[in-house]
From TrEMBL:
Recorded GO MF terms: oxidoreductase activity, acting on the aldehyde or oxo group of donors
NCBIfam families xref list: OAFO_sf (TIGR03710)
InterPro entries registered for this protein in UniProt: 2-oxoacid/accept_OxRdtase_asu, PFOR_II, Pyruvate:ferred/Flavod_OxRd, Pyrv/ketoisovalerate_OxRed_cat, Pyrv_Fd/Flavodoxin_OxRdtase_N, Pyrv_flavodox_OxRed_cen, THDP-binding, Transketo_C/PFOR_II
Keyword Membrane: no
Residues annotated as domain Pyruvate/ketoisovalerate oxidoreductase catalytic: 3-68
Name this polypeptide is given: Pyruvate flavodoxin/ferredoxin oxidoreductase-like protein
Keywords for the protein's UniProt record, in alphabetical order: Oxidoreductase, Pyruvate
Signal peptide (UniProt feature, chain positions): none
Amino acid sequence: MALLGVPLSKIAKESGNSDLLINTVALGAVTAVLGGNLTILNNLIAEEFGSKGEEVVKVNVSAAEQGFKHITENYKKNLRAFLSPSDSVSNFVPYMAVDGNESVALGAISAGLQFAAIYPMSPVSNILAVLAENQEKFGYIYKQPEDELSAINMSIGASYAGARSMTATSGGGFCLMTEGYGLAGMTETPLVIIEGMRPGPATGLPTWSDQGDLQMILNAHQGDFPRIVLAAGDAKEAFELTMQAFNLADKYQTPVVLIIDKNICENSQSFPLYDFAGYKVDRGRFSTEKVENYKRYELTADGISQRTVPGAGNFFVANSDEHDEEGYSTEDPEIRIKMMEKRMNKLKVCKKEDMQKPQLYGPENADVTIVSWGSNKGTILQALKELENVNYVHINWLSPFPSEALSEMLSKSKYILNVECNYTGQMAKLIRENTQIKIDENFLKYDGRQIFPEEIIDAVNKIRSKK
């Protein structure tokens, strides 16, 4: 460890005769210590202070350069490497600091969002803040309704009218959305729901994190209907899965829920700039033209019928009762069976065509396999750096569930450790339900705090001590 002295006040006064420049001098010095590029820093300063005039930019650039120069000239032997102002920036990879809420909003906008109705509730409130601020720029509509019931029903109505729509809430708000959740399933209306997890029950710990909503999302509402449920492991996954959720909702004409726990929602992480250009919008079987002998709920081999919009001349009843192919209510048992199988068959098709396998980190064969989901990803990956012969299976898809792929991965492990932030081990139960694999050991944390790498390492070491 070396102490690098920098006369901040002296350099600030020499650069612009003001102590206000001390922070900029320090920024230049820190950039040199971290091996940063002065040219890039100067560009950022010009961007930040450009609106304040050329002279302000000039003195701040000078201050940063002098702070940078003081370090590189006086402490060069203490630095591993540094880049001079003349060094090329051709290999520079720009990073951004972004949290899960911002990533969801960016993903929705990139996916062609047209309507969003969100009632504020931690930890997802910043999604609505980003969407509200940018609606005129990107041409979608954001509405803040009076409650979560209105939020989901407005979003369903917008989707019925043909718009790509979404809503977002936390566990308590989702409870209020349950009836609308089932309505979207029965009427086969595309809908994206973002569910930010925090500790319950009731108000619980509203500013902390948890993973206790999994079973609720998978089983909410009476009766069976197809639901696609995804879970992000970090902000980048939240961005990518949000975009995917819109295509899945349109293709399979059913609600898609993306679960993100509070640790992802509100914690910033640094990532290379997201890929906004590689996404292709897929509206599925969707017609804005008149179709002869139109049947909204036509029985098809894959369960997916052609959607339409009001005004196209295609008439049907959007009916929450059981219905026939045109939407008329019926209690006929044979029609009920056909319609139920039609709807549920979409999950089978989704599992075959779109469902992604769990991600495997570490060696393919290991003594101990850690299985987990959500924000535990970063902690576990950090712990893996200190562990030998241990791998990690990260699960993104919760419904439909990747039973076969997960079974194959776990069958190669001698010992399985499930890690999650809830009291009952909800992921372990889901794995047992879908694969018949019994988890050997659970590490469960439910105090609202994040899991730390040391805790993972300790849990693995305890397993090994039992052998």
